[in-house]
Specification:
By secondary structure, the chain is mainly beta. Helix content is 2%, strand content 45%. The protein has one helix and 16 strands. The chain has a six-stranded antiparallel β-sheet, with no helix packed on it. Strands 11-10-12-13 form a four-stranded antiparallel β-sheet, with no helix packed on it.
Amino acid sequence: MGEYGLGYHTDQQTLHEDVLGTVHFFSAVLHNTTGGPVPYKNAISLREEDAGISWQHADYRTGQGLIARSHRLVLSTWFTLGNYDYTFSWQFYQDGSIQFVAGLTGSVSTSMIAAWATRSGFGTPTAVKVNAQHHQHFFTVRLDTEIDGTYNSVATMDVVPLKNDAQNPYGQGFTVNETLLRTAGEARTKISPLTGRTWTIMNPSVLHNYTGKPVAWKLIPVNSPPLLMREDSKLRTRAGFLNWDVWVTQFKEDELFPGGFYLNNSGLPVWVGSQPDANVEKEDVVVWHNFGTCHIPRVEDYPLMSVE
């Protein structure tokens, strides 16, 4: 995507097919190779949709209960790049949470299995002598945060058990360890499913009325395998920005793409590698979050896969 230019492969959305209900469409204008305008009709859709149950509670004494359904506001786009189709959605919920969803569908990439071969080495047989390759997809979200003001800080939050002592005599207690990320070098961090790691993006200058702690938002990652290429792979050098799941940098106007403008081993590895001591505490920061999926195709994915 970084090489093709995602916007140039935007699909036109159609009511009652791509989206249902009351929908507002936004068209877009991009440019061609000579700078001329190219219109893209219905490139973005905006809709409200049911999102299940927001909350409910039943009183066991009286049998009486309350329930409220959740609605979310959704901004969506669709793209087609070769055999794959992608949908990206920003979903805004009534409880203040924001979810980003990347959906993958389309036709899985396949190759023929040799007539004499007994199995496929790096994929799943999905039809007679047809192999669907194992592969990975990665996405980066660039979050230019402004949490109650320009100057923010970022910390990792890990849930850990307490030591057995007088304050924890039964060994059941646990707490949250907060680690403030003070420099761009320290802020190169990874997911930690066993400690439930999240990232808190806060404004240290604004304290919450009840907790007395800085107001903040929480980045909750999905848990997926890291980049599985070997370190000496020729392609690995072009994907150095995937060596970490989260990066934090100072805001700079020309730093828009994690792999650099040309995806040629520049971007985050160079920006942070050249200035690992750059301060990211109480600064105008950008949080970069890498996530993805490791696709081991199944027979049901062929020839067109359901959205994952």
